[in-house]
Design a protein that fits this description.
Elements (H helix, E strand, L loop, with lengths): L22 H4 L2 H7 L3 E6 L4 E4 L1 H6 L5 H6 L2 H5 L2 E4 L12 H8 L3 E9 L5 E12 L5 E10 L1 H22 L3 H12 L6 E8 L2 E9 L2 H13 L9 H8 L3 E3 L2 H9 L3 H10 L3 E9 L2 E10 L8 H40 L3 E6 L4 E4 L1 H7 L11 H5 L3 H14 L3 E8 L9 E11 L5 E10 L1 H21 L4 H12 L6 E8 L2 E9 L5 H5 L4 E3 L5 H9 L3 E3 L4 H9 L4 H7 L3 E9 L2 E10 L7 H39 L3 E6 L4 E4 L1 H7 L3 H4 L4 H4 L12 E7 L2 E12 L2 E8 L1 H36 L7 H33 L7 E4 H14 L5 E6 L6 E4 L1 H17 L5 E10 L2 E7 L22 H4 L8 H11 L5 E5 L3 E9 L2
Parallel strand pairs: 29-31
Antiparallel strand pairs: 1-2, 1-6, 3-4, 4-5, 5-6, 7-8, 7-11, 9-10, 10-11, 12-13, 12-16, 14-15, 15-16, 17-18, 17-22, 18-19, 20-21, 21-22, 23-24, 23-27, 25-26, 26-27, 28-30, 31-32, 32-34, 33-34
Helix pairs in contact: 7-8, 7-13, 9-12, 17-18, 17-23, 18-23, 27-28, 28-32, 29-30, 30-32
The protein binds adenosine-5'-diphosphate.
Adenosine-5'-diphosphate (ADP) binds next to helix 30 and helix 32.
Length: 959
C-alpha cells in the first residue's frame, strides 16, 4: 500500500486547519493513517500542510498530527533544524517534497532533524510523491516519512567502528593514531575529543580536537589551566580510578559545577557550552592506559546510552591498538637493541640469502673480512672470503640443503701464518627460516679464538715442559729438553747458557733446521761476565728478560766481539730474539735464548711464555741440584752407618737426632732408646758440651766398664759428636804402668840386697868371718836367683804373649814331679806353714810338658804359701779321674774376692795391698800358669773366699 504524507517544512501562512481538507479524512482513512508507524503528511502545492498523522508529528517531538497541523511555520522552525547526510543544514529546495513539487515526479532522500533545543537527531527516509491534476499541475505532495534514526545510528556506529579500526591499523605511532581518531570522531560523533594517556604514572594529553578552531583553543586553555590529573573530581580522574565509563547526558545542569575547581573554571566550561559528554577508559589486558573524553556542545547533540556503548567499544579497540602499539614499540626497541648487539657484538655475525650473497654483516665480521660492513651487502660469499671459499661454500650449501645447522667448526687462517701468526676461528652456521619454516638464507656466528688457542698451546707446552723437566735430574739434560720443547714450536733456534766457573757456558743448542744446527754450534760457547759483557751477560746479570723484536746491528757486532763469525750468523738468519734469564729461588742460573728467522715474530705473550718456560726449567734444574745434594748427603749419612766410630747428633734443642750403628754397638744402647730423647737423660754422665778437645771418660755398659774418647764439633743444626772405644788401649796403658811400677819395685828389692852384700864384701875395713862371708854370698846368689826368676817370668810372659813359647808334651810322672816341687819348697818354708802332698802310690803318668807343669805347680805352691801369712796347711793333691788327673793346690790363707777370680789371671794383675797384706810379686805367676795349662790342653780355675783360703786347680790328660 502506498500511503502518501507530506511534511510541511515551511508554512509561512496559516494553513487554516481544515481550509483545504485532505480527502482521506472524509473517507475514514484518517484513523488508518493515524495508526501506522510511518509518518505521513500531505502538502499543498504551496507547501502548507494539509494532513499529518501522529507518527509524523512524533518525528518532530509533537504529540499528534493535529498539533502539528496547528503550528504556524515560524513555530515549526523553532522546533528543529533540517540537516543533510553531512549533518550540515539542508537548504529547503533540497528536500524531497520540494523537489517533487518542482519536478512533478516522485523524489526521495535522507533527511535529518535536529530537534531544538536539545539537539537530538532524528533521521528519516522521505519519499515524496506528487499528485498531479488532470491539467498537469501538482496539487498535492504525499510524503511518507520512515524513521531511520536507530538504523542510521547503528550504521553510523558500524562505520565509525570500521573506520577507527582502519585508523588503528594504519599506523603504529600512538600519537598519530589518536590524532586520526579525534579527527574521525569530530564532528561525526562528538563536537570535541580529547585523549589522555597514563605515561609513567602521569596523565598526558595526547590528542585534542574540536569541531571549531576557536572552541578548540578554548578547550586547550581549559585543559592547560585545569589539568584533569591535578583534580581528582575531574571525570577523567574518576574514570581512571574507577575504571567505569562516565556519561553526562545533560552537562548544562549539574555536572559542570561538580567538575569545576573554581568560578573561573566554571566560566570556561560555560563558554565551551558543553552539552553532554562521555569519558571512557582505555583499558587493555588489565592495564589502564588512559581515557577518551568526548563532548557535544554547539551541535546541540546529546549523548545517550547508545553513544556510550559506542564510545566504550571504540575505546576498547583503541586501547587494544595502543597496547599492541606499545608492545610493538617494545618489540621495536628490543629489536633495535638486538640490532645494536648484532652490530657491536665481539663475535662476527652475518646473514646470507639462498644464493649465498651477503645480506648483512656486523662490524666484527667486517673486520675479519677486512672490508667495511656496507660493502658486503649483495656480494658473493666466495668473492669476499677468498681462500676460504672452497671450504665455506660447500658448507653453506649443505646448511641450506639440509636445513641442519653446523656448530662449532674450527678453522685456521693459514694465510696469516706468513705474518708470523696463525689465526683460529670457531664458527657456527645455521639456517634462517620464515615463521612457516622455509629456509630463506643462512646465518653464521664466527668467533676468533686465536688468543684462546694460544693460551691452550701455552698451557700444553708448559705442561709438557713440566713433565719433561721433572723426569730428569741432570741440569744439562734438562737444558737440552727445554731447547727441544722450545724448538720448533716457539722458535727456530734455542740456546741455553748456564753459569759454570764464573762464565756463561752453553749447555744446549738446538735448531729446527738440521742445516743450521752446525752453524749454530759454531757460535761462541762461553760468555764472560766481567768487563764489556754484551747483552747475553747483561740479561743474566740483571736477571731481566730482553725482547728484540728485530735484531739490531749492534747485537751482531757484539757477537762478533765474542768470536762469532758474522757470515755464519747471517746464514742462521735470526731476525728476532728473546733472551730470558733462568731463575730459581731468586738465583739466576743461566739464560735461555729463543730466536726466529721471522722479524717481529715475538711479542709480549711469547716473552711471557718463554719466561714461564725458563722458570720451569729453573725449578727443574734447582731440583736436580737439590736432589744431587740430597743424594750426597744420603751417602754421607750412609757412611755413618759404616764407620767404626760412634757418631751422634744432638740438635740445638738438646735432643739426639742421630745415633749410628757403631754408637749402638760400642755402648750397647740401641738407636731407638737414644734418638728422640734429650741427650742429658739418654747419655747421663757423658761430657757433652765441653768443647772440642777430646774427652776420655768411663761409662757403665751392659758388658762392663767402657772407656770412651769423645770429640765434638758444632754444625748449623747442633753438635755432632764422635767417640771411640778406648777400653782396650786404656787396659794396655794400665798394663804398662802396672808393669813399670810392679817390676821396678820387684827388681829394686833383690838388687838392693845384692848391692848391699857385694858392698859389704868389698869393704877392707870390715873383717868378715867365713860364716858371715858365706851368708853374704848366699844373699847375693839367692837374690840373683830371684832376679833371674823375675826376669825369666817377664821373658816367659812376653814369649807366651807373642806365641813364641811352646810346650813339648811328653809322658810325665806327675807324682814324682810334685814331690820334687814340694821338696824344693820345703827348703825355705815358713815355720808355721805345713806342706802336705796327697798323691797316689805310683804315678800318675800325665801327658804334659814337664818343665811347664813344674813351673805351674811351683807358682801355685809359692802363692799358697805367700798368701797364707798366718801360716796353716797347704795341700797339694793329685787325683786321677776318668782319664785325667786333677791337680789342686789348697791353702787356708787370705782368699780372693769372687769379683777378682778372673782378673788375677791377667798379666801384672795383683790384688790390692789390703787384700794381699803387701806381699810382693810381679802379677805374672798366675798369667804364666794359665797360659801354660792352656797350652797343655787344660784350664785353670780358682775357688776362693776371702779369709777362708783358695783352691787353684786344673786337669791334664793321663798319659
Ligand atoms: P804375684 O806375683 O803377685 O803372686 P800371681 O800372678 O802369682 O802374682 O798372682 C796374682 C795375684 O793373685 C796375687 O798378687 C794375689 O793377690 C792373688 N793370689 C794368687 N794366689 C793366691 C792365693 N793362693 N791366695 C790368695 N791370693 C792369691
Amino acid at each position: 500500500m502506498t500511503i502518501a504524507l507530506a511534511l510541511g517544512e515551511n508554512q509561512e501562512q496559516d494553513s487554516g486547519g481544515d481550509g483545504a481538507a485532505f480527502p482521506a479524512r472524509g473517507v475514514g482513512l484518517d484513523a488508518v493513517l493515524g495508526s501506522i508507524g510511518d509518518g505521513i503528511t500531505a502538502q499543498r502545492a504551496d507547501g502548507s500542510l494539509a494532513y499529518a498523522n501522529d507518527a509524523a508529528a512524533r518525528l518532530l517531538g509533537l504529540e499528534s498530527g493535529d498539533e502539528l497541523l496547528g503550528l504556524s511555520g515560524v513555530e515549526l522552525m523553532q522546533r528543529f533544524l533540517v540537516i543533510g547526510e553531512d549533518r550540515e543544514l539542508l537548504p529547503a529546495d533540497k528536500l524531497p517534497n520540494r523537489r517533487a513539487i518542482a519536478s512533478g515526479r516522485p523524489e526521495e532522500g535522507l533527511v535529518g532533524y535536529r530537534l531544538l533545543p536539545d539537539g537530538e537527531e532524528r533521521w528519516s527516509f522521505v519519499r515524496s510523491t506528487p499528485i498531479v491534476s488532470t491539467e498537469g499541475a501538482v496539487e498535492h505532495v504525499i510524503n511518507v516519512i520512515q524513521d531511520v534514526t536507530s538504523e542510521r545510528a547503528a550504521h553510523e556506529r558500524a562505520r565509525l567502528v570500521d573506520e577507527t579500526g582502519a585508523v588503528f591499523a594504519a599506523s603504529i605511532d600512538i600519537e598519530a593514531t589518536f590524532d586520526a581518531l579525534a579527527e574521525l570522531l569530530v564532528p561525526r560523533f562528538a563536537d570535541y575529543c580529547i585523549v589522555d594517556m597514563v605515561d609513567d604514572g602521569r596523565l598526558r594529553q595526547v590528542a585534542i580536537s574540536h569541531r571549531t578552531p576557536e572552541r578548540e583553543q578554548l578547550l586547550r586553555e581549559l585543559r592547560e589551566r585545569y589539568p584533569p590529573g591535578a583534580n581528582p573530581a575531574h571525570p577523567v580522574s574518576e574514570v581512571l580510578s574507577t575504571g567505569e565509563p562516565y556519561l553526562v547526558e545533560d552537562a548544562r545542569v549539574e555536572a559542570l559545577s561538580h567538575a569545576a575547581v573554581d568560578e573561573e573554571h566554571l566560566a570556561l566550561y560555560r563558554r565551551l557550552e558543553a552539552m553532554s559528554y562521555i569519558v571512557v577508559p582505555l583499558e587493555a589486558r588489565g592495564r589502564m592506559l588512559g581515557t577518551i573524553s568526548l563532548g557535544t556542545g554547539e551541535s546541540g547533540r546529546r549523548f545517550g546510552e547508545l553513544d556510550l556503548a559506542l564510545a566504550i567499544e571504540l575505546a576498547r579497540r583503541a586501547a587494544l591498538a595502543i597496547d599492541n602499539a606499545l608492545l610493538f614499540g617494545a618489540a621495536q626497541q628490543s629489536y633495535a637493541q638486538l640490532d645494536t648487539l648484532l652490530v657491536s657484538a665481539p663475535v662476527g655475525i652475518g646473514f646470507w640469502d639462498r644464493d649465498l650473497r651477503f645480506v648483512r654483516v656486523n662490524d666484527a665480521l667486517a673486520t675479519i673480512n677486512g672490508i667495511p660492513p656496507e660493502e658486503h651487502v649483495g656480494r658473493d660469499l666466495a668473492d669476499v672470503v677468498g681462500e676460504l671459499g672452497p671450504v665455506l661454500v660447500p658448507l653453506y650449501r649443505r646448511v641450506l640443503e639440509t636445513g641442519e645447522p653446523v656448530v662449532h667448526t674450527e678453522s685456521t687462517d693459514d694465510a696469516a701464518l706468513q705474518m708470523g701468526e696463525r689465526r683460529h676461528w670457531l664458527s657456527s652456521y645455521y639456517p634462517v627460516r620464515t615463521p612457516d619454516g622455509e629456509v630463506i638464507g643462512i646465518g653464521a656466528v664466527i668467533m676468533e679464538i686465536t688468543d684462546r688457542k694460544r693460551a691452550d698451546d701455552r698451557l700444553r707446552l708448559l705442561a709438557e715442559a713440566g713433565e719433561l723437566f721433572s723426569t730428569s735430574l741432570d741440569q744439562d739434560e734438562i737444558a737440552s729438553r727445554i731447547a727441544h720443547v722450545g724448538v720448533p714450536r716457539l722458535a727456530d733456534t734455542c740456546n741455553i747458557f748456564l753459569l759454570r766457573d764464573g762464565v756463561l757456558a752453553r749447555v744446549a743448542c738446538v735448531s729446527a733446521d738440521p742445516e743450521v744446527q752446525p752453524l749454530l754450534e759454531s757460535l761462541p760457547t762461553t760468555f764472560a761476565l766481567a768487563g764489556d759483557s754484551g747483552r747475553i751477560a747483561r740479561v743474566f746479570q740483571a736477571s731481566e728478560p730482553l725482547l728484540l723484536r728485530s735484531l739490531p746491528e749492534e747485537y751482531l757486532d757484539e757477537l762478533e766481539r765474542f768470536g762469532a763469525d758474522r757470515p755464519t750468523f747471517e746464514r742462521i738468519g735470526t731476525r728476532s730474539l728473546m733472551l730470558v734469564p733462568i731463575v730459581a729461588r731468586g738465583q739466576t742460573l743461566g739464560i735461555l735464548t729463543l730466536g726466529s728467522r721471522l722479524p717481529e715474530r715475538f711479542d709480549e705473550h711469547d716473552l711471557d711464555l718463554a719466561q714461564e718456560l725458563a722458570g720451569r726449567a729453573g725449578v727443574a734444574m734447582d731440583n736436580a741440584r737439590l736432589v744431587e745434594e740430597l743424594r750426597r748427603r744420603a751417602q754421607s749419612a750412609q757412611a755413618l752407618e759404616f764407620v767404626g766410630d760412634g757418631v751422634f747428633l744432638v740438635g740445638r734443642d738438646g735432643v739426639v737426632l742421630l745415633w749410628n750403628p757403631a754408637a749402638a754397638r760400642i755402648t750397647g744402647l740401641p738407636e731407638e732408646r737414644i734418638v728422640g730423647s734429650p741427650a742429658s737423660d739418654a747419655l747421663l754422665g757423658w761430657p757433652l758440651g765441653q768443647g772440642e778437645r777430646p774427652q776420655t771418660f768411663p761409662v757403665d755398659a751392659p758388658h762392663g766398664e767402657l772407656w770412651l774418647s769423645l770429640t765434638a764439633a758444632e754444625f748449623p743444626h747442633g753438635t755432632v759428636y764422635a767417640f771411640r772405644d778406648l777400653t782396650e788401649e786404656r787396659a794396655v796403658e794400665q798394663l804398662k804402668s802396672d808393669f813399670v811400677s810392679t817390676v821396678s819395685h820387684e827388681l829394686r828389692t833383690p838388687l838392693a840386697a845384692i848391692y848391699g852384700a857385694a858392698m859389704t864384701l868389698q869393704r877392707s875395713d870390715v873383717e868378715l868371718n867365713d860364716v858371715q862371708e858365706a851368708g853374704m854370698l848366699g844373699v847375693i846368689s839367692g837374690e840373683s836367683e830371684r832376679l833371674a826368676r823375675i826376669v825369666n817370668d817377664i821373658l816367659l810372659a812376653s814369649r807366651l804373649d807373642s806365641g813364641a813359647a811352646t810346650v813339648e808334651i811328653s809322658r810325665t810322672d806327675a807324682g814324682e814331679l810334685a814331690r820334687g816341687v814340694l821338696a824344693a819348697a820345703e827348703a825355705h818354708l815358713p815355720a808355721d806353714v805345713e806342706l802336705v802332698l796327697s798323691v797316689p802310690e805310683r804315678g800318675p803318668q800325665v801327658a804334659a810338658d814337664p818343665d811347664g807343669l813344674r813351673q805351674v805347680l811351683v807358682n801355685l805352691v809359692e802363692n799358697a804359701v805367700k798368701y797364707s801369712p798366718n801360716g796353716g796347711r797347704v795341700e797339694v793333691e793329685l787325683e786321677p779321674t776318668d782319664g785325667r788327673v786333677r791337680f789342686a793346690v789348697r791353702d787356708r790363707g787370705l782368699g780372693i774376692p769372687a769379683s777378682e777370680h778372673e782378673r788375677i789371671f791377667e798379666k801384672f794383675f795383683r790384688l790390692d795391698p789390703n787384700l794381699s797384706r803387701g806381699v810382693g810379686g810381679t802379677g805374672l805367676g798366675l798369667y804364666i800358669s794359665r797360659e801354660i795349662v792352656r797350652r797343655m790342653g787344660g784350664r785353670i780355675r780358682v775357688e776362693s773366699e776371702p779369709g777362708r783360703g783358695s783352691t787353684f786347680s786344673f786337669e791334664l790328660p793321663l798319659a
